[in-house]
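Researcher: We plan to redesign the surface later, but first we want a full-length starting point. Tokens attached.
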């Protein structure tokens, strides 16, 4: 495992905290706007609100993936970085990977 300095850890922690806060803000706006759209849809007697709900929901899902799964510092991301470094190092040395 790569060792980080206190400054690097602080920068990574701040970056991840901002990303998580951004996701939470996105989720709150998603919920508020879509509740309003659902209310309008019910008032009009048509079920059109499902389309923005699903479309935006897909975007929110991928935003969540980028924050919770593929963010720097996550085990999955760190493992991918280690494997990629090993491949690049092997290629630079002329080895086959």
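Model: Full-length starting sequence:
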């Amino acid at each position: 495992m790569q060792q980080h300095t206190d400054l690097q850890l602080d920068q990574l922690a701040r970056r991840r905290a901002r990303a998580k806060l951004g996701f939470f803000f996105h989720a709150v706006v998603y919920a508020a706007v879509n509740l309003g759209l659902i209310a309008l849809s019910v008032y009009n007697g048509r079920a059109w609100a499902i389309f923005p709900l699903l479309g935006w929901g897909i975007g929110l899902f991928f935003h969540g993936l980028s924050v919770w799964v593929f963010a720097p510092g996550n085990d999955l991301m760190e493992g991918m970085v280690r494997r990629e470094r090993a491949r690049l190092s092997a290629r630079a040395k002329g080895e086959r990977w």
